[in-house]
Amino acid sequence: MTRGFRTGEFVREHARGLRARPWRALLVALCAAVIGAAVPLVSLIETGGLRDSWEQQRQAGRFVEIIRAGSITGFPMEYCENIARTEGVIAVGAILHREQIQLDTFPGQNRELLRVSPGMVRIAWPGFEIPAAGIVAGRDLATQTGLVAGTSVTLSRAGTTESRDIVGVAGERSRVDGLNSSLLEPDVRADQNTRECFVEFEPGAASAVLPVLRTAVPEQYGAITAPFLTKNALVGDPEKLLPQRASNWAWVAGAGVIALLLGVLWWSGRSEMALYRAFGVRPIQITLALALEVVATLLLPVAIGAAAVIAVAGLLGTGIGSQEYLLAGADIARLMLALLPLPLLGTALASAISPSAVFKGA
Fold it and tell me: In 107-249, which ranges are continuous DSSP H helix?
């Protein structure tokens, strides 16, 4: 009957065995580092691609909703402006009044002058700076008439003339039909009615904003909410797509590869473990030794690989948002948690062969 190994003695003996075969530890560590880098990398690439797609859709008006009044009289503009206080809303805007005018440079041709809320300019042309006062010209109108910012024009209406300043010319086509060939005059007065309220929100804010839109205007006005781009049906919340991304399962594949590699290596050395068992090493001691091996050759390299990828991504300034980093970090955390039970697998493999079989030459 042997006295067995003390736990510290066995752990040191197991460590000496690893140092005697460094290729084994290096192979496992290299594999773990590569997988640790690959998991956040594919996550950042896929989520970044989704963000780019959402930004393109946002520019096209994918995340714009319209609240339409049920009658020709419309509803007070204040209900539209109140929506701007909702978290995630980028801009709210409305067309308040339409008026036919003529430009002195093109007599006889009717043009449309629209009085709009300041946010309507941002809805029509994302990123366009909203002027404090004056008139904004649509791109097509400016091209046809030669209007440029900083010039004055004479407007004729109902037998009267008026000189107005052109403070801006939109450089892109408007997302809202009809505005490219019109003049827009921002109007900050809130005591007016509108028949349509345009609301743009962040791609990840749909679940919070849409319920607000449905109740923003009292029922007495018969208002309905609909997507700006009718072909897209109801606007969904892109954040709900993130858990369904393919890279969400990269950690499972990574953990499977590591477990398979380590399992093969441990299975090839099961006779050595069985021999230790013959000399009194207990399963709990084997588990502890393998746990230290997992920490040194798996968890640490995984953490180093993941940290390297995230650090490089941050240094490159690729415009990755905090949500992407959180998702990548969550994937790495799941990978590392999946690796924690591996020492139990090693202990089970060590128990798969009896010590007596070792002495028989197994």
Answer: 118-124, 139-145, 206-216
Distance CA 356, CA 362 (A): 9
Residue in 124, 126, 128, 139 with CA at minimum distance from that of residue 55: 126
H/E element, 102? strand 95-103
Please state, in angstroms and rounded to a whole number, the distance separating the CA atoms of residues 130 and 241.
33
Whole-prediction pTM: 0.59
CA-closest candidate to residue 342, choices 286, 304, 273, 278: 286
Q: Cα angle at 302 between 44 and 270, to 5 degrees?
A: 140
The tens digit of pLDDT for each residue in 2-52 reads 455 566 666 666 666 666 577 777 888 899 999 999 999 988 888 777 777
DSSP letter assigned to residue 353: S
Non-local (6+) Cβ contacts of 174 within 8 A are: 124, 125, 138, 139, 180
Q: Which residues pair with 29 in a beta bridge?
A: none
Tens digits of per-residue pLDDT, 277-328? 666 677 777 778 778 878 888 899 999 999 999 888 888 866 677 778 888 8
- Tokens 């380590």: give the residue: 262
Extents of the domains making up the chain: 7-55+242-359, 64-234
Q: How far apart are the first and last CA of the chain?
A: 22
Residues 6+ apart with CB under 8 A from 294: 262, 339, 340, 342, 343
